[in-house]
Amino acid sequence: MLVTLVIGAVVGAVRDPATLDPQSPEGVVQSYLEAVFDHDYTNAVGYLTAETAERCRPSAFRDAWVPDDLIADLDEVRVRDGQADVRVQLRSTADPLPFESMDPSVETFTLVDDDGPWRITDEPWPLHSCERPE
Amino acid sequence: MVGLLVIVLLVGAVVWGVRSSPRDETGDRSGMALRRLLQYLFLLVALFSAASGVTRILTVALPIGQRIAGGGPEELALGLSLTFVALPLWAILWRIVSRRLLEDADERASRQWSLYLAIATATSLIVALTNLVRVGTWAVGAGQLDARSVAATVVWGAVWGLHVTLLHRSEFAPTSTRPSLAVLAASAVGVVALALGANGVLSYGFGQAYQAIAGDALIEGATTEALRRSLVLTVPAAAIWWWHWLRQALHGPRSTPWHVYVLLVPVLGGLLVAVGFAAVALNAVLQWFFGDPEAARAAVHFAVVPDALAAALVGGWVWWYHLTVVEQVAVRERGEPERTYEYAAAAVGLIAAAVGIATAIVAAIQAVAPAPLAAGDPLGRNTMVVAVTLLLIGTPLWWAFWQRVQRRTRAGDTAELQSSARRAYLFLLFGGAGLTAAISVVVILFVVLRDLLEGSLDATVVYELRVAIALVLTTGGVSAYHWTVHSEDRAAMPEEQRRPPRHILLVSSDGRGLADVVAERTGANVRTLHRIDVAPGEPDAEAVAAAILASPHDRLLVTVDEDGTIRAIPYDTA
Question: Are the Cβ atoms of B71 and A17 closer than 8 angstroms?
């Protein structure tokens, strides 16, 4: 009975990911991360600036390593002069015991607002091997 | 899930094994040791699994932080699975173990129980402290709060508290001289965390002072956020260190583990950090005056010095404080922990100096040898500065410790001559350096022979082989020196300490008569073979015996030539 209550209470407390304004910098990062987590790289490229998207094709995502069961928590958002830095904590639920809670990686996404929607620039996580600009 | 199944099966097997094993196991010490090892290993696995499970459940349940992607039902499912399986298993195992501990003083005194306490205490402390710092960082406005950090701080802090309580309850505390093992492990966590935190605070202070003196020279000034983060680490780390070291381990039994910890963790570690960061600061100074500094302004170039000085000071304090504590223990005879510390420090100094010498030789060859047309980049002046820095730092470090141990051997300290630390030091340096030298010789021979056969051998080969030549000279010298020291050690060993060769295969024209005399003189088992290629003679039996006794080897093939030349060739049967 007690076990059932505990499970019920915890399951009831489980939160879905927050719904952010898709036009805000953190909302764009959220949409980008959801696409990456779903391995929908064509969609993910759509959240990059035109210059970054030109260099970082969907194939570049396939070369990157994205661990399974990732969770992204919003850490900090800083907006200044048409540029935004969105800091996100990434951790995997599949990390080994007992150190799974010790060292989540922190990724910063830089976004620019070129008189349009916010878009991610600067080869964002998980990319690392985009083509070099000519 | 496979991992979970394995844990369940293993813990189940141990529970079954522990329950079915006879209570009186005094007649089977190895079986008992294995039983204890498995028992505490699985207690540890069950504990960590249960703590991890509860942490995951709390992470999901706590309404803290803002999850923006991922985090399906997997974390909760895994948390619930781990908790519902590992927690009851841990409870069952603990019930069995605690009963044994209460009834049997030998169980409390066992190494396995001490080791379990040390691992559980140190691990839970590391995880709790790391997450507490993250929570504290949020509290001082230097970061965001997340549910995982809060959950892990609470759960792993509780695990740590539970084990600290066990350590202080007489019915569970180890009764041997090893109660300090868990306290020592926690002291190590405390002193490392305290040093990291103090280094951050000191770096900030030095950075501010430097900025005040040098003006706006720093490319990126230290922020108060960095100071706040460091203070958040320093405060709990100081509390942990005070509780585990100042209150307990410092006044605990000065056992071998105590000396191993103090000498090899804070003393050796502190010394290496201090010397390493002093080298960074010295290199910056030398590079400014003799190298090619990247920055044009001194204020920018020397911006690395405040951080390096802070780390060197903190490392130096950790070294000095703990060394003072050790030296207050006057009653203890010098043992292997002391020797290991001194030989390890000497080895680090020697390796640094050897790298410096090798680099200097490479630069010298480049300066005088004719370079081929397609020569690579010449060795930069900064590399030479690094070489000089390594020499200036490594040589005194090696000399200070090496002279100290050599004074003891010269004074006839047989314990020093026979110590495992000294043997390991000599053989590792002789072998490691010798192997490097041999490989370098192969490279030199290959290149020279290749060019010779191609008909293209000229003076530029010296330039091409500069690194291999430098390695042969440096590592060859190091290897030869340590072989000489090893030979001197053997010669200095008292006669009764040296074991004469025991198996002699004697090949001479004399035959049985000589063999009997040699066997009598040496006490060895002598087999003899009669030479027929030389005229029968009467070899000097005393000289043969002396040649055998002078050899350090256990098995010898001894030949006596017609002109009386004696050859003692060591062999093995493998």
Answer: yes
Residue A4 domain-assigned (yes or no): no
Q: Residue A27's domain is classified under what CATH number?
A: 3.10.450.50
Nearest CB to A74; choose among B66, B72, B149: B66
Predicted confidence band at B11 (pLDDT cuts at 50, 70, 90)?
low
Per-residue tokens: B468: 């291999």
User: Which residues neighbour B426 within 8 Å (Cβ) at sequence distance 6 or greater?
Assistant: B482, B485, B486, B489
- Whether the CB-CB separation of B197 and B163 falls below 8 Å is answered with no
- Residue A15 domain-assigned (yes or no): no
pTM of whole model > 0.80? no
Average per-residue pLDDT for chain B: 84
The residues with which B556 forms a beta bridge, in sequence order, are B504, B570
Specify burial of residue B189 (Cβ count, 10 A radius: 0-12, 13-18, 19+). Answer: buried
Q: Does B144 touch chain A (CB under 8 A)?
A: yes
Q: Are B129 and B239 in contact (CB under 8 A)?
A: no
Q: What is the pLDDT of residues B201-255, one digit of tens each?
A: 999 999 888 888 877 654 455 567 788 889 999 999 999 999 999 998 888 777 7
Q: What's the pLDDT at B379?
A: 56
Instruction: Find the mean pLDDT for residues B37-65.
Output: 90
For residue B479, give the nearest of B544, B421, B429, B552 by alpha carbon. B429
Q: Kindly state whether residue A91 falls inside one of the protein's structural domains.
A: yes
Of B67, B74, B144, the CB nearest to A69: B74
Distance separating alpha carbons of residues B527 and B511, to the nearest angstrom: 10
- In order of B505, B506, B553, the CA distances from B570 in angstroms are 10, 12, 6
Half-sphere exposure of B264 (CA within 13 A, CB side): 17
